[in-house]
Specification:
single chain, alpha/beta, four-stranded antiparallel beta sheet
Length: 468
């Protein structure tokens, strides 16, 4: 154990220098030539293990740096990181209170606080939830809850010739397709509803799609809204869609994996003011809350819904009817062995508090506004979509260039060139047929200067590439 601690200390203090590039990863074929990742019959010496760890840290993009703008997370939460280490040390699992007593109480408190923010714990409903292995699994369970709501016997008897239909925005995360596949709904029965010019699902189009399904004798059962779409950060209109859902007895789910934390902020929570109208809600703590991957939760307004939908088996040897039975979380989950992710989230929330997360969001929203202003003031940069949250989608467009394919190719190459140069690290994305540079603001330490450097680099590299 002591040897491992010493190795970890060297990894932190020596092998992750502060001035390292954000990205320095070669292509996969190139890296295969550099590294030996083979496994064999015989074990290796300590130096070989250390060399592998050094390579792992060296070539992996440094998501802790302020210039990491590529994904929906950035920065480092030291309290959560400590919790992650302690969790691995104890190696607790979470199916019963007996084997994870403290983590169980922490998870239940986290669920109470999340439900309070969303509005599910309102005095009438207590709300419930369970931590899961990422937002995709949370969205899967949301759809599974919807299936159980409209067809409770589907759990035991299967489809029985029924065709269930789910509806999401054409800007929704691809986990909806995975869920429809896994649950036997069929990806053809997941309808991508048109979004408006701001990237929000169109309620009129949603009603039209539901009417089509009903005319075919199908059963509409699930509406999946998004709070903070992956590309532009749009928030679907909850109130209007809730009215449609209630009229047809359809389960309403919100994927707030990225945009849910806006609820911490009194200044900006209006973007998700109607979250309490949903039936279930996805939240990823490993995104804007900076908890190490993975840490996610499915929240449910209706007490007992998770157990009714997900439980099955284990009563003979695991879920004992003892004094702690009410605290056993395993019957709410589709997993048996489940890591105690509650500790790292609880430690960071305890240390930072609601106000700390609110301050981070307010700061980043302010930086976002400045970023948009800088793009709009530039003669060669242009916004491709409105930015209400922490996604900024823009592109470099030379005055002489009008062909969309040329502009697409140029902006993709700008991103790749910056990556090869070691940063800033951004990615490209497509929105309504046009490609641009997708900037994600998730690191609370980012400043106006960091954004200015990034935009200057985009223009400089863009000019050089366009002149070739």
């Amino acid at each position: 154990m002591q040897e491992s601690l010493e190795l970890l200390s060297r990894a932190i203090n020596e092998w992750m220098p502060k001035n390292r590039p954000v990205s320095q990863n070669p292509s996969a074929p190139e890296l295969e030539k550099i590294l030996d990742v083979s496994l064999g019959e015989q074990g290796c010496d300590q130096q070989s293990l250390e060399d592998a760890i050094k390579a792992y840290l060296h070539y992996n993009p440094d998501a802790s740096q302020v210039d990491f703008f590529k994904l929906l997370y950035s920065g480092r939460n030291k309290h959560a990181l400590l919790g992650d280490w302690i969790t691995s040390l104890s190696n607790a699992t979470m199916h019963t209170y007996q084997v994870g007593p403290v983590a169980t109480l922490m998870e239940l408190e986290l669920i109470r606080q999340w439900n309070k923010l969303v509005g599910f714990n309102d005095g009438t409903n207590e709300g419930e939830g369970v931590m899961v292995a990422g937002g995709s699994q949370a969205n899967l369970i949301g759809m599974m809850l919807a299936r159980h709501h409209v067809c409770p016997d589907y759990k035991t008897k299967g489809a029985g010739g029924r065709t269930l239909v789910a509806y999401v925005s054409d800007q929704a995360h691809y986990s909806g397709q995975k869920a429809a596949n896994v649950l036997g709904i069929g990806t053809d029965n997941l309808i991508a509803v048109a979004s408006d010019e701001t990237g929000r699902i169109c309620p009129v189009a949603l009603q039209q799609e539901i009417d089509k399904s009903l005319a075919q004798g199908h059963i509409p059962f699930y509406i999946g809204l998004t709070a903070g779409t992956t590309v532009i950060g749009a928030y679907d209109p909850v109130a209007a869609c809730s009215k449609i859902a209630r009229a047809h007895n359809i389960w309403l789910h919100i994927d707030g994996a990225w945009g849910g934390p806006i609820l911490f902020s009194d200044q900006h929570r209006h973007l998700l003011a109607d979250s309490h109208l949903a039936d279930s809600f996805t939240w990823d703590a490993h995104k804007l809350m900076n908890v190490p991957i993975t840490a996610a939760v499915i929240l449910v307004k209706h007490d007992g819904a998770l157990r009714a939908c997900c439980s099955g088996g284990g009563g003979e040897y695991l879920f004992h009817a003892d004094e702690n039975a009410a605290y056993n979380l395993g019957e709410r989950s589709i997993q048996c062995g489940r890591r105690a992710d509650a500790l790292k989230v609880w430690l960071s929330w305890k240390a930072i508090g609601n106000q700390g997360f609110a301050a981070k969001i307010d700061h980043l929203q302010s930086i976002k506004t400045e970023c948009v202003e800088m793009v709009e003031q530039s003669e060669s940069l242009e916004m491709l979509a409105p930015s209400v949250y922490l996604n900024v989608l823009f592109r470099y467009r030379p005055e002489h260039m009008t062909d969309e394919q040329e502009i697409r190719k140029l902006n993709i190459e700008i991103c790749k060139t910056m990556m090869r140069n070691g940063g800033p690290y951004v990615d490209y994305a497509q929105y309504k047929g046009r490609y641009g540079i997708r900037l994600i603001l998730a690191n609370g330490e980012v400043t106006r200067q960091h954004i200015s450097v990034l935009l200057d680099q985009c223009e400089l590299i863009g000019r050089e590439l366009a002149s070739q």
